[in-house]
Amino acid sequence: MSQIEAWMDKLAELAVFGANVQPGQLVAVTSFVGKEDVARRIARAAYQRGAKYVDVVIFDQWVKRERIAHALEETLDYAPPWMSQRLLHLSDEHAARITLSGPHALRAMEGLDPSRAGRDLLPYLPETGAVVNRRTTNWTIVPVPTHDWAEAVYPELAHHEAYERLWETVAHVCRLDADDPEVAWTERVATLKANADRLTERRFDALRLHGRGTDLTIGLLPSSAWQAGDFVTVDGLHHLPNLPTEETFTTPDPERVDGYASATMPLELAGSVVSGIRVEFKDGRAVGIDADQGAEALRAAASSDDGASRLGEIALVDGQGRIGALETTFFDTLIDENAASHIALGNAYDHPVEDPEDKKRINVSRVHIDFMIGSPTLAVDGMTQDGDVVPVLREGAWQI
């Protein structure tokens, strides 16, 4: 067995562990072309755990290209009802869900109108946020390298060398190099949750994030608690939604966001690359969106519905994780968002909000778009109800 094949097996086992697949569960795997080997290994690991049935759906960005290029404008945000029905059935059945991230064709949307590309966010479905908030499924997302993705990350390397290098990096950030990756993640999650608990204890009224290109004040709800590492389903099953995960996050007040933010990494948005993002907020809403590349795609996604231009998440990432130290852009939100602090336009998670009345105020949208604004120079301050300013993060180090 080659080293890459060994990593594939370990990653498949980690995905099934992260989703916490149970005996008798339906297991849904969402993948892209080029990741079939890992999808098959996940099926094997899930069946070995006692899965009832493993259903694999594979998307092809080159097929999406034909839609963006030629479909009628008014049909571009259409999502086939059977896709939504599948997701809703998985929710009803309290199934496990595993998504394989990482672009398989970063050039598929080249030369197309970005405003059209931003209308089609599949395989992300409009019902995804609601299902996540119901907490009826135990799920995880893991990165799986492809050759095209590897060449985008390491363009200076030969084809096969880039692929091997990306697998080596994914193995590192996913802690597949540990004696027991499951134990390694259990320990890392405990550290992340301790960070979240310290933030929750302070009950800040707002956060101010300021640094080069960013000066943004984000209001928090009175009962906004900080979360990290794992989620818990309504059935009491713990699962790790993101592997790797290095973030500590909460749900903001969608009406109290003011200032401006600049992205420190490109964003891969449903097949399009958006880079040099600059967003201005006023009274909670993004009133100006610009970018060096792909601005129209982000504007189109942020106009999907009334909540798409408001914040649904604020996440802080310290300098102790394995991703940020690599100083590499991966063009995959799963990895990049765990390298740097970030914000998300669109749908909010309701479980970090403790008060039922506050839950009614969280942002609701059919989209959830993370983009990274963090860097070692980004400073984060907590602002109390009394007007005190408390340093929270400086140069990637916690101050509380």
Low-confidence stretches: none
Radius of gyration: 20 Å
**Fraction in helix:** 25-40%
Largest sheet: 8 strands, antiparallel
How far is it from the N-terminal to the C-terminal residue, by CA? 47 Å
Classify the secondary structure makeup into a structural class. alpha+beta
Q: How many independent structural domains?
A: 2
Read across the widest sheet, the strand sequence of neighbours is 15-14-11-6-5-19-20-21
Task: State the shape.
Answer: globular
Total strand count, please?
21
- Give the percentage of residues in beta strands: 25-35%
Please work out how many helical segments DSSP would assign: 12
Mean pLDDT: 94
Task: Please describe the structure with a list of short key phrases separated by commas or semicolons.
single chain, 400 residues, alpha+beta, Thermophilic metalloprotease-like, 2 domains, 8-stranded antiparallel β-sheet, 21 strands, 31% helix, globular
Written description of the protein model:
This protein is an alpha+beta fold and 400 residues long. The strands form 5 sheets. Strands 15-14-11-6-5-19-20-21 form an 8-stranded antiparallel β-sheet. The chain has a 5-stranded antiparallel β-sheet with strand order 7-10-16-17-18, with helices on one face. Helix 1 packs across helix 2 and helix 7 packs across helix 8. It starts with a helix and ends with a strand. 49% of the residues are buried. The mean pLDDT is 94.
Care to give the gist of this entry?
The protein is an alpha+beta fold. The protein contains 12 helices and 21 strands. Strands 15-14-11-6-5-19-20-21 form an 8-stranded antiparallel β-sheet. It has a 5-stranded antiparallel β-sheet with strand order 7-10-16-17-18, covered by helices on one side.
